[in-house]
């Protein structure tokens, strides 16, 4: 094996590589799907060597094939197989389980890429991106405000200022004016300044993670090339040279969001002291300093909004520049302002006592109102874009982005509210010693049970539809296996697998109902909190006892549910830190959710495609340039999405030397519906015209993959007829044991895969006649 590695290194460095027209060598590049696998499994050989790459992502070959280009006579009639392994980009070590806490940021980032298909209307497109970026900014403020609520309001202000609560929690004793006998830290402003270390540290951690993950994952530069003339036609943006390199925007947004978080902490610390100083009889100097502080906070907030609004992504070229020093120094300026605010709040103020709550109701109410208005405006813009070029297959008629943005806001509210509710219950053992979290968070907790009830009804309806579909599919299953002895149990299992696979197509309905209910119930909670200023149960006092009891029950149940949900969320992340199988499951979630670059939120989990797509592009371009040959890129599941994205990044002449084989592919079923501007019919049609040939395999039992619904020169359709699953209905000579229902996995075990792969590889042979496609009506039988 060491000899093979040395030969591969020598061959890849300077030794001449025979051109494929002379050598007849063909290349098959395999790309795995979600969850990952090993190169030994992909290449079906225990002896593999790394051709290029590192421990994070690399290309492997069989050890015997390491120097295949120097021995072309050994590979006549068969391809050289390579495997690109990228699973460590998402599901490597246990620390990445902490990315679960960044879920709302990831979801709002997805909303940016769900823009409807349109042609022209650049200003409207820019407005869409701007609204999503502003929504992402509110999520950062909401998360930091939730941390401030816990550390500053509940712990330092309420609990430390109350004898009963402070005596129960001895670790807060030095902050309590009663327990510590008016110690130095017992002044309200100093307590707030000390507690501000917690949300400030959280903001710094988010900044550090964003900076570190950018350096580790997304700093790989794509191949430099000129923009194609037709990239302005709106077919797809994934072929633009700078699409997979967003260094400038991520750095810009990171500075703005970090500054926003620090400004939120400074406002929580300084506004309470300023409000006390504005009262009549207070020191004039402190009153002036308080007003200057408030003006500085307003100016800082305006600067943050200006930075977020000023520019979006630069995709038409590789933007290697950074912004001016004013933008890059914005976090440092806000950090200095936070330190000055802490000094100002810690000034001695005789007679200042911590009573009631900090002004959290106004803060959380303003955030909720702004988020609702942004989501509504985003929906209007998305509708206008969809009307210019309607796409019947687009999810929710182009409103998928606003709906997902609404869910991101709801997730942020659940996380911040859940932590606040549970910490308040933990600190306030008797339930009467401290006022507790803001009223709005209590109202938001009371709408959780109705929302779950709506979700339960919807799931029951979908379950009934699936049951009816399973009954209808039983006749279809029997028709697909006409010569087999019928077994009702076997038929029911196959029909159930097919019916369950269709649930993916009902996801738009689920998202639409949940997001609409969330928007309406959230608006009701906001109105109730702002108009009454009391908890739901107290607001119903004096009306009907039934209404009051229902409100109290909803509030209590919602409080426990929201806290339980967050605890389960954290527990799952902790389990994933220790359990490799759970970590693998979470890695699959990131495989789907972090394909897109960070365009709306810099604290979202890193985009693995900004490493994987350049890797594949460089490998295909350099191999074809060195050998002059052609290759087949074979992608399963998410690997097919990476393969398509990499093919778009190639030069047009190189694309013509690439054949594409996809199986279990979500290109049209998921990406085409949810991301129509980038994977819509026009984009997939252009890809099919640009590559040498494209064939796609799918099964009716696959809940993820599906047809791409394109026609072309490779045959009547790019899609082969749906493959049989299972391969055999009962026991046969070829399958003496019951054949399993494969669903989304093991496409390579199907004879149809071998046939389509052979057809594509035959096209790579110099001067070889292209085999005619088999009739579509026979393709289903060949897979049995």
Automatic annotation (TrEMBL):
The biased composition feature labelled Basic and acidic residues covers 754-766, 775-784
- The keyword Transmembrane belongs to this UniProt entry's keyword annotation: yes
Entry's transmembrane regions: 127-152, 192-209, 255-276, 288-309, 330-347, 367-386, 398-420, 440-461, 509-533, 553-573
Region labeled Disordered — which residues? Answer: 1-24, 727-784
Q: Which UniProt keywords apply?
A: Membrane, Transmembrane, Transmembrane helix
Which domain of life does the UniProt lineage start with?
A: Bacteria
Which InterPro entries does the entry mention?
Answer: AB_hydrolase_fold (IPR029058)
Alphabetized SUPFAM superfamilies for the sequence: alpha/beta-Hydrolases
Q: Return the protein name.
A: Integral membrane protein
- Organism expressing this protein natively: Streptomyces lincolnensis
């Amino acid at each position: 094996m060491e000899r093979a590695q040395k030969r591969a290194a020598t061959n890849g460095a300077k030794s001449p590589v025979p051109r494929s027209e002379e050598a007849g060598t063909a290349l098959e590049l395999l790309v795995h799907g979600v969850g990952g696998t090993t190169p030994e499994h992909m290449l079906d050989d225990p002896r593999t060597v790394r051709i290029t790459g590192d421990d994070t992502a690399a290309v492997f070959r069989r050890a015997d094939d390491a120097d295949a280009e120097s021995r072309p006579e050994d590979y006549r009639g068969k391809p050289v197989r390579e495997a690109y392994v990228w699973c460590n980009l998402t599901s490597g070590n246990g620390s990445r389980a902490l990315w679960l806490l960044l879920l709302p940021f990831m979801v709002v980032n997805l909303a940016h890429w769900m823009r409807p298909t349109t042609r022209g209307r650049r200003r409207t497109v820019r407005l869409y991106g701007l609204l999503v970026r502003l929504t992402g900014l509110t999520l950062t403020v909401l998360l930091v405000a939730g941390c401030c609520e816990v550390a500053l309001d509940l712990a330092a202000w309420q609990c430390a200022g109350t004898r009963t609560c402070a005596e129960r929690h001895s670790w807060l004793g030095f902050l309590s004016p009663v327990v510590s006998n008016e110690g130095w830290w017992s002044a309200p402003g100093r307590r707030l300044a000390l507690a501000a270390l917690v949300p400030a540290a959280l903001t710094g951690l988010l900044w550090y993670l964003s900076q570190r993950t950018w350096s580790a994952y997304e700093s790989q530069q794509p191949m430099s090339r000129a923009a194609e003339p037709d990239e302005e036609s709106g077919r797809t943006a994934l072929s633009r040279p700078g699409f997979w390199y967003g260094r400038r925007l991520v750095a810009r947004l990171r500075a703005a969001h970090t500054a926003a978080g620090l400004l939120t902490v400074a406002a929580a610390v300084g506004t309470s002291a300023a409000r006390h100083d504005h009262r009549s009889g207070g020191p004039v100097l402190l009153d002036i300093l308080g007003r200057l502080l408030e003006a500085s906070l307003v100016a800082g907030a305006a600067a943050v909004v200006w930075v977020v609004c000023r520019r979006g992504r630069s995709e038409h070229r590789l933007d290697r520049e950074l912004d001016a020093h004013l933008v890059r120094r914005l976090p440092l300026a806000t950090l200095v302002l936070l330190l000055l605010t802490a000094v100002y709040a810690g000034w001695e103020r005789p007679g200042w006592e911590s009573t009631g709550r900090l002004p959290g109701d106004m803060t959380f109410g303003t955030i909720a109102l702004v988020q609702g208005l942004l989501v509504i405006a985003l929906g209007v813009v998305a509708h206008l874009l969809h009307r210019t070029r309607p796409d019947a297959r687009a999810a929710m008629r182009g409103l998928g982005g606003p709906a997902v943005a609404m869910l991101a806001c709801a997730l942020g509210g659940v996380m911040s509210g859940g932590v606040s509710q549970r910490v308040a219950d933990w600190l306030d053992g008797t339930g009467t010693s401290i006022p507790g979290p803001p009223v709005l968070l209590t109202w938001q907790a009371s709408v959780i049970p109705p929302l779950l009830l709506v979700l339960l009804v919807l799931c029951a309806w979908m379950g009934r539809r699936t049951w009816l579909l399973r009954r209808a599919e039983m006749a279809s299953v029997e028709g697909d296996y006409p010569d087999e002895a019928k077994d009702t149990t076997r038929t029911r299992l196959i029909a159930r697998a097919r019916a369950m696979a269709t649930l993916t197509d009902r996801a738009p309905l689920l998202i639409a109902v949940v997001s609409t209910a969330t928007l309406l119930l959230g608006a009701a909670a906001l109105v109730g909190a702002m108009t009454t200023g009391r908890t739901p149960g107290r607001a119903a006092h004096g009306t009907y006892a039934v209404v009051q009891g229902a409100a109290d029950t909803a509030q209590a149940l919602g409080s426990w549910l929201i806290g339980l949900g967050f605890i389960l969320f954290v527990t799952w992340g902790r389990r994933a830190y220790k359990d490799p199988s759970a970590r693998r499951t979470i890695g699959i979630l990131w495989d789907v959710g972090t394909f897109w670059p960070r365009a709306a939120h810099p604290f979202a989990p890193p985009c693995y495609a900004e490493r994987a797509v350049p890797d594949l592009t460089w490998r295909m371009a350099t191999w074809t340039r060195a050998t002059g040959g052609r290759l087949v890129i074979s992608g399963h599941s998410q690997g097919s999405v990476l393969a398509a994205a990499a093919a778009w990044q190639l030069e047009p002449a190189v694309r013509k030397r690439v054949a594409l084989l996809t199986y279990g592919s979500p290109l049209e079923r998921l990406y085409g519906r949810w991301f129509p501007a980038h994977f819509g019919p026009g984009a997939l049609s252009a890809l099919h015209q640009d590559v040498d040939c494209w064939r796609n395999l799918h099964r009716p039992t696959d809940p993820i993959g599906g047809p791409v619904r394109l026609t072309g020169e490779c045959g009547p359709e790019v899609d082969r007829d749906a493959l049989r699953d299972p391969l055999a209905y009962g026991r046969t000579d070829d399958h003496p044991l019951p054949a399993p229902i494969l669903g989304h996995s093991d496409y390579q075990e199907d004879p149809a895969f071998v046939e389509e792969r052979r057809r594509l590889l035959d096209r790579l042979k110099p001067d070889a006649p292209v085999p005619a496609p088999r009739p579509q009506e026979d393709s289903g039988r060949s897979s049995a």
